[in-house]
Known about the structure:
- By secondary structure, this protein is mostly beta strands.
- It has three domains: 12-55, no CATH class; 67-186, Immunoglobulin-like; 195-300, Immunoglobulin-like.
- Helix content is 6%, strand content 32%.
- It is built from three helices and 19 strands.
- The strands form six sheets. It has a four-stranded antiparallel β-sheet with strand order 5-7-10-9, with no helix packed on it. Strands 6-12-11-8 form a four-stranded mixed β-sheet, with no helix packed on it.
- A hairpin with a 2-residue loop joins strand 1 (12-17) and strand 2.
- The longest helix has 7 residues, at 220-226.
- It is globular.
Amino acid sequence: MRPDPGLVTTAGSWLRTSGEARFTPRFPAVPGTEYLVLGRPADGEAPWRELARAGVPTIELVSHTVVEKIDPGVDVVPANLLRFAVTFSAQMDEGSAAGRILLLDESGAVMPGVLLEMPPELWDRDRRHLTVLLEPGRIKRGLQPNLLAGAPLREGGTVTLAVDPGIRDAEGARMLEGAQRTYRVGPPIRSRIDPTQWQVRWPHAESDALVVRFDRPLDRALVRRYLHVVDAEAHEVAGRAVLDEDARRWVFTPEADDRDFALRVDVRLEDLAGNSVRRVFDRDLRRSEDDGIGGAHVVLTPGD
């Protein structure tokens, strides 16, 4: 005899010791749910019977989470924009963002097939920063998705990234409110990042900071990861780095007074369209200037 087909088996693992059996569920218990423990003899002949019953108290969830930032931080994005990013005020529930972050056209209608469905979702380690990709196959010219459906964004138009309040935080509560940000769509960017084209103001006195103005807006998260100040021995210099809202101006203030350092740029650093220092994201094989470069870093020094 099988258990009631209306019951749902709970995933988890059993640990049996002398006189005791302990069950550890794979997923957290759902508030307001009643769980049954069923058992039967090892020979499998006798029917299942209820051994224990446990109820999980209902928790009154309080909404308090909001969207702190939507990136890019610029008003105009390239027509070949690769990604958005949403930063929340609290740790979020992995999996609840599916279908709740949408891209809207000028009329407010949802643009289908534009955002890439990504299981699992692209959260950072703290689950507060979510990366949302546009469909790469529609961005790259010549690929079937691009030829059949066209590019995701249209130059000259506007798009709105909308965050639905149904996304839940780590405690299971809905957000306090949703959020959205509207962008104008500008021309595409299809060239490598060239750090030698940046405007760099090197410090000349102890109170000065290193100021770098990029030639285009860069990916905010990747600037934090791939841009570093190093000393003469190539060790990273301790200090405070600040990137402006447009992700075009980076200011580094070192903790120590020594100003004998260089700027090390990892070639994986990318702009808003996915172009990196190493290569062009949507490369034209007929253009030699689109060829990639080798090496792991580009290093800028005051003498450059």
